[in-house]
Every structure is written in C-alpha cells, then in structure tokens.
Amino acid sequence: MKLLKSLKKLCFFFFVTIAIISWCNNQKYYQIKSQIQQSNVLEINSKIREQHTITVWIHGTRTISLSTLPLLKRFFKNYFGIDGLHPAQIYTEKNNMLSIAKTLHKTDPESFPFEDIYIFGWSGVLSPQARFEAAIQLYEELLTLSRNYVEKYQIKPRIRLITHSHGGNVALYLAQREKDQQENLVVDEFVILACPVQKETSHLLKSEMFKSVYSFYSTFDFIQTLDPQGAYNAKKQWSQNKKAHLNLQEPFFSERMFESQENLKQMLVKENGRPILHSEFIHEQFVARIPGLLHELR
User: Which candidate, 200, 205, 215, 206, places its Cα nearest to that of 250?
Assistant: First the structure.
C-alpha cells in the first residue's frame, strides 16, 4: 500500500509540472498525421452541415484537491465542468468550458450550434470506480436529453462526444452501461483527445454503440501514459486478500493507441513539427481545428 501511495504522489507532482509548462505554451499551428495513412496532412477548409447534433464535452481528471490547495481553487473551479450534464450557455465567461464551446461554435456554427453544445462535469477523481460512476450518470442524462429532443423536434438527435484525457474512459464505460440497460443509446461520433488507453476500458470501444471514432494522441504527451493501470490490479488483489503481483505481460502504465478496428481512425498530433503536450489538446488553437478535422476524416 505504501508503494501505491508513493506512485500516486509521483504521478501527482509529475502531472502538475507538465501541466504548468504546457499551459504556458501558446503556439498556433498544428499538423495532424494519420496512423492509417501516414502521408496524410489534413487541411481544414470546409464546413459540415448537420441538424440536431448534440455535442457533449467531457473533461478529464481533477488531479488536485481543491480543499487542500486553496490558492489553486479558483483556477480549477474555472477549468472543469459543473457536475452533471448542462448546456454550455449556463457557464460564466471565466470558465474554460465556455471558451471551448464558443470556439467550436465560432469555428463551425452550422455543425456546432451553441444551444446544442453541452458540458458533462464529473468528480474527476483518479480511479476507475469514479469514472464508472460518472458514466452511469452520463448515460441516464444522455437518454433524458435525447428524449427531450424527440419531444421537441420529433426526431432523434445525433450524439457527438468530445472527450479529453480520462474523460475518454468515462465515455467508454457508457458501452458497459448500455450492455446492462439495453436502452439503444447510440454515440454517432466519438472524438477522443489524449485518452490514457487502459485494459479496463479499451475493449469497450468495440461496442456497436460507437459508430465513428476518432482518437488523437501525441508522442510527447507524458500525462497520457502516466496513469499506472497495473497498480489498480495489484490494489484489487490486495482487497481480495490474495497475494499481490503484477502481470508482466500487461503494461504497467497506460498506452497511447487503441487496437485497430474498422470504425476507428487514430491520429498523431504535431505542432510546428513537435508532438504537443497533454493540455494543449484543449487550447483554443487546437479546439478550433476539431470541426475541420472531423470533416476531413469522415
């Protein structure tokens, strides 16, 4: 148990250091290379026309306890979402979630109507259990939102999820919930930014509920692979009063890429020839390119 606590502390301090460095970085130009077609460089110059597509942004892990670091309380309060699924328009100007929503809308107002952009806030605790519990809540709220759209517009809406970091694993757990509940929830587009790929959830990407999946990653994103999934297995074995050991055939840390499948496109992201950092995936410069990238990749 002491080893696990030490690992968590190490991960915490490493994450904070990288986050501060990358937050200060403000370069503007990005290059996207497809792992499926290595020579492709995508140009963003077209618009997408869709009707009644709900876009839901899901943030990643809250790595710092707001109660223990009061000096950073305001920063992290403005960085993450309000708990639950809410329209982006309820957020204040100081909140980064509103900035993300406005950037998507400004870049492509036809495909991202502002009134159809939602933010899903969750605890952000660094644990599989917290992410699964968040997925249960998200699942029910997406069903309710979809039914409301049917009642209002007499048509079932398309659902687009855009996730950052462990927000991707929250979304992946939706597939487990759908398997249990059988409510026919469909995610038409699943956009994954810098998700720590873990054995616990990666197989869920094969669920039929995910129609089109686009995963963006960077080889210079140390945060993406830092979460020690192997430690979770060891902790689970201790809790079951079994001899703890690590399966050396499985990666101890998280991975960057999912196993290939027909509906999945995985893209390496570079900025001016340099792979970008974890938090740069949610900088305005990259967020503004998401609509165009989706158009080119469809």
Answer: 200
Burial of residue 94, with CB atoms counted within 10 A of its CB: 0-12 exposed, 13-18 middle, 19 or more buried: exposed
Q: Which of 278, 277, 225 is nearest to 252 (CA)?
A: 225
d(CA 32, CA 276): 11
**Domains assigned to the chain:** 2-297 (3.40.50.1820)
Cβ contact 114:294 at 8 Å: no
Residue with tokens 């708990």: 83
DSSP assigned state of 64: S
pLDDT single digits (tens) 207-252 = 999 999 999 999 999 999 999 887 776 555 545 555 445 454 567 8
> Which residues is 160 bridged to in the sheet?
55, 189
Q: CA torsion 100→101→103→105, rounded to 10°? A: 160
Report the C-alpha gap between 198 and 209 in whole angstroms.
19
What's the predicted TM-score (pTM) here? Answer: 0.80
The rounded distance, in Å, linking the Cα atoms of 207 and 204 is 6
Single-letter code of the amino acid located at 80: F
Please classify residue 224 by burial: count the beta carbons closer than 10 Å to its beta carbon, then call 0-12 exposed, 13-18 middle and 19+ buried: buried
pLDDT in tens, 149-192: 999 989 999 999 999 999 999 999 999 999 999 999 999 999 99
In our burial notation (b when 16+ CB lie closer than 10 A, e otherwise), range 266-277 reads bbbbbbeeeebb
Give dist(CA 278, CA 124) in Å, integer.
Answer: 16
